[in-house]
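Worked problem 6 (solution included).
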Amino acid sequence: MELRILVVVVCVLSLARAGLWQYTHPLLKLLLLPQRTRCKFFSLTETPEDYTIILDEEGFKELPASEFLQAVESAWLVLNVSSNGSASAGIQPIGVTKIAKSVIGPLAQHSVSVLMLSTYQTDFILVREKDLPVVIHTLANEFEIYQEVNGEPVPAKCDDATNGFVRPKQAVSANVHPFQSPPNRFCILSVAPETLPAIATILLDVLFYSHSAAKESASLDGGSGGGAESFAFFAFSLIEGYISIVMDAETKEKFPSDLLLTSSSGELWRMVRIGGQPLGFDECGIVAQIAEPLADADISAYYISTFNFDHALVPEEGIDHVTEVLQKRQESRR
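Solution. The predicted structure is:
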């Protein structure tokens, strides 16, 4: 398998709901007119707390500074694991659970904090730019690692990247975070870029103008397992020309079905939301504490990190087993 280090450097931002009106125009430009911004990596995820925006430097230039926009100080690099060296619209994601043992776990053991962004097409791992030498050294035995240089993949040199220094391996001591499973049923799908104008009006309404009671007042308590109420979650990404959308089944009914690309099974997904309080960005092993037990149980999952919390999407029919597996893992770690 290959590990691709994208040439792009991305920023991770939180946009307060109260400031959405101020950013509607630049966000619409990034959503619908990416060719005018030269932005190659753009992700917008709505949660009850805020909007998480992950985008490259060209996209960041489109967003004016304000009191409503908060940025993580670190710059992040984007990694992509593939079996054929490229992410394409014709393959489904490898999945966070498939790389739990080979990528997520080893990086946690070497004190590398990661963010995850699963899309319809592939899975992206975000690491701090300063951690890249440790990432390369940690994963070099498992993967062929390439960096993009002028659009071409060039083998990453482990020794040059680390200058002889390797961070010592440390035991993982991540906090045990509570989780919730809201009753929403989610769809993971795509649309062809050329059909985006046909759904633009609906997309704008869903993201910017539909202020239901759930969006305005939804919140999750800090318990573990079930019992949570439905809440607002909508994820849109446009990365390297490919579109990915995560939305609940009710929202999907607003879109013309003939323009939505889904898996042949039309599978529905349930969410496990990780964190009772905002997770921050410094703790290592948060993704691993979810991905590893799911991998051991052979349960596939998409994973989307946001500014405050993490979200794993698992097949609907397996949600009870998932919550049981994670509950047992939590109890064993206490």
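Discussion: The chain has a mean pLDDT of 85.
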